[in-house]
Amino acid sequence: MSTLEIKDLYVSIVTEQGSKQILKGVSLTINTGETHAIMGPNGSGKSTLASTIAGHPRYTVDSGSITLDGEDVLAMSVDERARAGLFLAMQYPVEVPGVTMTNFLRTAKTALDGKAPSLRHWTKDVKQAMSQLRIDADFAQRNVNEGFSGGEKKRVEILQLELFRPRFAILDETDSGLDVDALKVVSEGVNREHAKGEMGTLLITHYTRILRYIKPDFVHVFVDGRIAEEGGPELADRLEEEGYDRFAAATPAVEA
Amino acid sequence: MTDQVDQKPLTPTPVPESVISDILEKNPELEGIGTYQYGWADKNEASANARRGLSEEVVRDISAKKNEPEWMLDLRLKGLKYFDRKPMPSWGADLSGIDFDNIKYFVRSTEKQANTWEDLPEDIRNTYEKLGIPEAERARLVSGVAAQYESEVVYHQLREDLERQGVIFLDTDTALREHPEIFKEYFGSIIPVGDNKFASLNTAVWSGGSFVYVPKGVHVEIPLQAYFRINTENMGQFERTLIIADEGSYVHYIEGCTAPIYTSDSLHSAVVEIVVKKNARVRYTTIQNWSNNVYNLVTKRAVAHEGATMEWIDGNIGSKVTMKYPAVYLVGEHAKGETLSIAFAGEGQHQDTGSKMVHIAPNTKSSIISKSVARGGGRAAYRGLVQVREGAKNSANTVRCDALLVDTISRSDTYPYVDIREDDVTMGHEATVSKVSEEQLFYLMSRGMPEDEAMAMIVRGFIEPIARELPMEYALELNRLIELQMEGAVG
Description:
Pfam families (chain B): SUFBD_core, SufBD_N
Shape of chain B: globular
Number of helices of chain B: 15
Largest sheet of chain A: 6 strands, mixed
CATH superfamily of chain A: P-loop containing nucleotide triphosphate hydrolases
Number of domains of chain A: 1
Radius of gyration of chain B: 22 Å
Family (chain B): Belongs to the iron-sulfur cluster assembly SufBD family.
Distance between the termini of chain B: 38 Å
Strand content of chain A: 25-35%
CATH architecture of chain A: 3-Layer(aba) Sandwich
Number of strands of chain B: 22
Oligomer: heterodimer
Protein name (chain B): Fe-S cluster assembly protein SufB
Structural class of chain A: alpha/beta
Distance between the termini of chain A: 39 Å
Domain SUF system FeS cluster assembly SufBD core (chain B): 228-462
Largest sheet of chain B: 12 strands, mixed
CATH class of chain A: Alpha Beta
Mean pLDDT of chain A: 93
Helix content of chain B: 25-40%
Largest interface: A-B, 29 and 24 residues
GO biological process, one term (chain B): iron-sulfur cluster assembly
Strand order of the largest sheet of chain A: 6-9-10-3-11-12
Low-confidence stretches of chain A: none
């Protein structure tokens, strides 16, 4: 079993108005086999947490730690984090013109595993994963994310999750912009990988909708850069009924 | 310093990576060198003894060594006069580093041209083995091979079936002896002796290069390949190529270029003339990978007759300075000209490249697609001219140039000149300059790719529209060259 541990994390970004602190003391522990949902209103810092774990250069860690089985994640470069088993399914995956999906997937898999996958198995795996996610076979020859619809991009993120087999997957609002059918297909993909029992999942979402398909073991409510409340799946049900207003009202004035 | 010391070859033996990283740590300036794979040099007596500098005597001597007809000597001397008289170009790249007095204008490395690789002197044969040329021929990836070493073509071969069909593929010196009538008609007819300073220089001291004639209706399906190698320090290589594609024929000619790494500069100044007759098609592909001490100043021009198509695919990866603008003169109705150009400017490199399309006849079409990448403080410029002359009604041209900057210390410029003297024309121009985006790098790195690999993938993707036009082996070679160029590009 592996553990991803976030301890008292403070993170800021530089804006035109100067430095702005987004995360204000986040602590969270995820073990492989577990699914954690992070829920919260827009601007509460959910996506900042996701990007910080993956190492996006825009975010500066002011204090606190992230460790993976005791290893200092914050000391690792973006690619080292990926090779250590962290995967971020992005909210806005970027286009890479002139690079086919086939080339991209194979290069990434080779980099992640430290060796090229056996061609025969790999081709089969890719085909199967694509068909399960209802991704048209001709996407293999298309350029990475180029001209893909929002839903197609999200499916391709989950395709990568299934093919790369990370130890910890962070899904950054994977559900946003998906219709019900696409949401189901994408959720099934995550569940298939989760069922293998070797992956911890951090599911970041604004809505409770995706939690009908992906069942969290723990729910954390994010408000103003910190965790305002934690609980089991029943907490999501309450949020469904009550919304985030209750937390917003209960939040004390912002610290200096 | 004597020439013998200059000639000391760099060791081609691979060194373990751990050792390399130690060396690089102590000598960071070597990093660029480590990425160039063709930087070894052979020991060569002839080149060591070759004379430096240019004079009438040198020109006469070259002509005499080749037993040339009088008219060619006269043309050479005329070239020399023009060269002396014409000023250096005041635009483009900095050429002040060229020391014309220090250059060796003619180096004969072997007495006899070979038809089998075994007949070549061992040093030279090894060079081509290392470059993979005989292998390409054995694998039948090419239908004819010419290998030029220093000033002359040392190896030459054409597939028998093509010879039977009347295809001529010879080194230019031999062709002049065997087909004087064709030379009198075409040599210097596309690029006149006084066209520009470096074309004049080439005319004065030219040696080697290819002559290709494809008879009416003959399609040469598999490319002809020429390989140019400079071995000597301060060498000047001045090959002269003439291609004539007769009516309805097709040929694809590919050239590659490499040289050893030296501390002082060499000069490569070629002239390429192409005649594409009615309904014929010629594709001319260059993968230029000179070492970073070569000035590469080349004049290339084609004339496309009625219904003919001329395609330049011009890849400039190496050299210190390149100035090259392949041109198509569209002289017949419905003629087409196309240039796909890739330039890669790394540390210490200036690539000033582009194309020239001259519409002379009505209903002619041309397009220029240029992609340039600059990194490590390199400069890449697109320089192009589209001219539509009076009477070239209903002509159409599109220009698209995209530049990619890998870092903030590199530079990209665009100089698109347009000269239209006819009303009824269609023109399109698009230019973009982009930087490798932080988001793209983050995306690829978050999938496990180290930064240089991610960068190389983005750059490869950027030039892919041109790479896919190349035969597969060359596309792979180009990708590999880009990867080598990108190594050490970051961090």
